[in-house]
Design a protein that fits this description.
The protein has two helices and six strands. It has helices at about 10-15, 25-30, and strands at about 5, 35-45, 55-65, 70-75, 95, 100-105. The radius of gyration is 14 Å and the shape is globular.
């Protein structure tokens, strides 16, 4: 079965609308580590005018492979999908690259 979603290339989205869609530098997205939580943007393969434009969800990185331009990640979906609930479930494992990382969950500063 062909998925009805694709992972957005966040660099392309940023080029189209840099004021409203900001991303971390590519080099920072190539240095992510196991255990980090990242936000990916899932977009419909066949968008419709009256349907959702996508869904942003968090993934925890479980595996890191490759270096530089060949860097790849594999992680576990932390959200329960709303838009793509027929295909994706909380806990699903997904593969992605730095070009798909829209944001990184930054830990809260330590309490003083």
């Amino acid at each position: 079965m062909t998925p009805s979603y694709t992972l957005a290339d966040v660099d392309l989205r940023h080029e189209r609308d840099p004021e409203h869609f900001q991303v971390l530098p590519l080099e920072a997205r190539r240095r992510l580590r196991k255990g980090m939580r990242v936000k990916l943007v899932f977009e419909p393969v066949l968008p419709s005018e009256d349907g959702p434009s996508g869904e942003r969800m968090w993934i925890e990185i479980d595996e890191v492979s490759g270096d530089g331009e060949d860097r790849r990640y594999r992680g576990t979906l932390l959200n329960t999908p709303v838009v793509f609930h027929r295909e994706l479930r909380h806990g699903d494992r997904l593969s992605f690259g730095p070009e798909h990382v829209a944001d990184v969950d930054r830990p809260a500063p330590p309490a003083r």
